[in-house]
Design a protein that fits this description.
36% helix, ten-stranded mixed β-sheet, two-stranded antiparallel sheet, Rossmann fold
């Protein structure tokens, strides 16, 4: 049986979040199953755009900070890193308010840059993956639970697309976005290549509607953990009240034999899930937009990136 852990966590109180994170490790086999003392551990949150915590666009700062504390107390050497689609890791971290708290802990925030070419297993495609991420001893994947205008929902797998540096992500939307299967196979290959030892999804306050950036916050009250990302995605679908059949990542994973193919093979540990959609009811879906990016959209995206970076530098 593939194990997925659930903890009910209704707010971002530091003590509550810390206790819930520790419980995930206990449920899934204790921290030493995943991390050894002295190891350099990348905490990979979702830092997609410089929007504050209340927007539910990025992984909440409390979840990031408390995970860093747990790893430090254990004797690991954590750092936080991402390559946001908009702005950069420093700007996103500043808006979240995690720069000073992490600095006091001695935890660095790094841009996932310096790409090196790696061949993806199923695609056969060579893609630039951040050497900062690849050089980490271990990775803990810390995504935000959100609806998504191109892929239905973004849960565990897509967060590791952030190891592709900068605006190269937009180029891969153009090169692989002609079919869902082609694009999702690439995402699954990136996940396999970067190989996070654990995923913990921040669904305490999630996002619904036109995610992953402009949706509405949704009080949801869950942290969801697991080693196998597709099992995590399947459980999240049930919690959100959406069909796994509607998510291209899950369907592509089944086609290529990646991960858990059947909910019957999942053992849920921890708190018992309630009705579909959690306390707030089913998620409002994201209206779908094209997966493939046109050359004009890529140019527009790059220009917007420059504008956001300049603006963020002026504000901080």
């Amino acid at each position: 049986m593939t194990k997925v852990s659930l903890t009910k966590c209704t707010d971002y109180n530091n003590k509550n979040v810390n206790a819930c994170l520790l419980r995930h490790f206990e449920l899934l086999g204790r921290l030493e199953r995943f991390i050894s003392r002295g190891e350099r551990v990348l905490i990979k949150p979702n830092m997609i755009a410089p929007k504050p915590a209340e927007c539910a666009t990025q992984t909440n700062p409390v979840v990031i900070i408390e995970l860093a504390k747990i790893l430090l107390d254990f004797g690991a050497r954590p750092f936080v890193g991402d390559s946001p689609a908009w702005a950069d890791a420093a700007a996103c971290a500043a808006v979240l308010g995690i720069v000073e708290p992490l600095k006091k802990l001695g935890v660095e925030i790094k841009q996932l840059d310096k790409p090196v070419k790696r061949t993806l297993e199923h695609c056969g495609t060579k893609i630039g993956i951040s050497s900062v991420a690849l050089d980490a001893d271990k990775i803990i994947n810390l995504p935000k639970l959100k609806t998504h205008q191109q892929l239905g929902a973004t849960i565990a797998v897509k967060n590791m697309f952030g190891t592709v540096s900068g605006k190269a992500k937009a180029v891969w939307h153009y090169r692989k976005g002609k079919t869902f299967e082609g694009f999702c196979t690439m995402l699954l290959d990136i996940y396999r290549l970067t190989n996070p030892v654990l995923t913990i999804v921040d669904g305490i306050v999630a996002m619904e509607g036109p995610g992953p950036i402009n949706g509405e916050p949704k009080k949801f009250g869950w942290l969801i953990g697991g080693v196998e990302p597709i099992a995590v995605e399947l459980v999240c679908c049930d919690l959100m009240g959406i069909s796994a059949e509607d998510l291209p990542i899950i369907q592509t994973a089944k086609k290529i034999g990646f991960g858990c193919a059947d909910k019957k093979d999942i053992q849920i540990l921890g708190d018992v899930p309630g009705d579909a959609g959690g306390a707030g009811g089913k998620f409002v879906p994201a209206g779908q937009t094209p997966l493939v990016f046109s050359p004009a959209r890529i140019v527009k995206s790059i220009l917007r990136q420059i504008f956001i970076l300049v603006k963020s530098r002026q504000n901080h």
